[in-house]
C-alpha cells in the first residue's frame, strides 16, 4: 500500500480536542454528561469523529485519565523534589480541578472494571512516589517510621485534600479554612517557611 492509499493518519489535534472537551464536561457536569454526542458538540466536531478516534467511550475515558494521571505524576514529582516538598505536595492535593476529575473517575470506576484497574495502578504509582519522599522526610527528622509510617501519612494527607474538594463541590465549607491552617501548621513543623 502506498502512502497515498493509506487511510489518512488520525489527527492528534482533533484527538486532543476531544480529550480536552471530555475533561471540561467531566469537571463541570460529571462523567455521566460526557457522552459521545456531548463531547463532539463541546469539541465542535461531528459525533462520528468521537468514535473514529476512540472506538468506545471507555477508550476515550482511559485516554482522558491517562493524560491527567501523567500530568499529575509529573507535578507530584516536581513538588516532592522541591525545596519544600511537603507544602508543594499538599498544594497538589488541594487543587480543585485535579481532585474533581479524579472523583469523577472514581464514580465511573464503580461501573467499569477496566477504568477501576487503571486508577488502582496509577494510585499505586502515586502512593509509592509519595511514600518514598515521605520516608526520607520522616527519617531526616529522626522519627520512628513505626509510629509515623510514611504510607499512612500519605494516605491521611491525600484523604484530607480530597474531602475538602468533595465538600466544596457540595457547597459545604465549614471548618475548611481551619483544616487547611492545621495541615499547614503541621507541615511547618517539618518545613519552616523560608
Return the CATH topology of the largest domain.
Answer: Tetracycline Repressor, domain 2
Helix content: over 70%
Strand content: under 5%
Main CATH class of the largest domain: Mainly Alpha
Low-confidence stretches: 1-9
Overall mean confidence score, pLDDT: 89
Derived structural class: mainly alpha
Q: Give the count of helical stretches.
A: 9
Secondary-structure element string: HHHHHHHHH
Major sheet: none
Query: Structurally, how many domains make up the residues?
Result: 2
The 3D shape can be described as elongated
Tell me the distance between the termini: 63 Å
CATH architecture label of the largest domain: Orthogonal Bundle
Structure overview:
This protein has 194 residues and is mostly helical. The chain folds into 2 domains: 1-55, Homeodomain-like (Arc Repressor Mutant, subunit A, Orthogonal Bundle); 58-190, Tetracycline Repressor, domain 2 (Orthogonal Bundle), CATH 1.10.357. The protein is 74% helix and 0% strand. The protein contains 9 helices and no strands. The longest helix has 28 residues, at 113-140. The radius of gyration is 20 Å and the shape is elongated. It comes from Mycobacterium scrofulaceum. Residues 35-54 bind DNA. Pfam families: TetR_N (PF00440).
Amino acid at each position: 500500500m502506498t502512502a497515498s492509499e493509506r487511510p489518512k493518519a488520525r489527527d492528534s489535534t482533533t484527538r486532543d480536542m476531544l480529550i480536552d472537551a471530555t475533561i471540561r464536561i467531566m469537571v463541570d457536569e460529571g462523567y455521566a454528561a460526557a457522552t459521545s454526542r456531548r463531547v463532539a458538540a463541546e469539541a465542535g466536531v461531528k459525533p462520528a469523529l468521537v468514535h473514529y478516534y476512540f472506538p468506545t467511550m471507555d477508550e476515550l475515558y482511559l485516554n482522558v485519565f491517562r493524560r491527567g494521571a501523567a500530568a499529575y505524576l509529573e507535578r507530584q514529582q516536581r513538588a516532592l523534589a522541591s525545596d519544600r516538598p511537603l507544602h508543594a505536595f499538599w498544594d497538589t492535593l488541594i487543587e480543585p480541578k485535579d481532585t474533581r476529575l479524579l472523583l469523577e473517575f472514581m464514580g465511573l470506576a464503580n461501573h467499569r472494571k477496566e477504568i477501576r484497574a487503571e486508577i488502582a495502578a496509577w494510585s499505586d504509582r502515586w502512593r509509592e512516589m509519595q511514600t518514598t519522599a515521605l520516608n526520607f522526610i520522616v527519617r531526616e527528622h529522626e522519627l520512628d517510621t513505626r509510629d509515623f509510617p510514611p504510607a499512612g501519612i500519605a494516605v491521611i494527607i491525600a484523604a484530607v485534600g480530597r474531602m475538602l474538594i468533595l465538600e466544596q463541590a457540595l457547597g459545604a465549607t465549614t471548618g475548611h479554612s481551619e483544616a487547611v491552617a492545621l495541615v499547614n501548621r503541621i507541615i511547618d513543623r517539618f518545613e519552616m517557611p523560608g
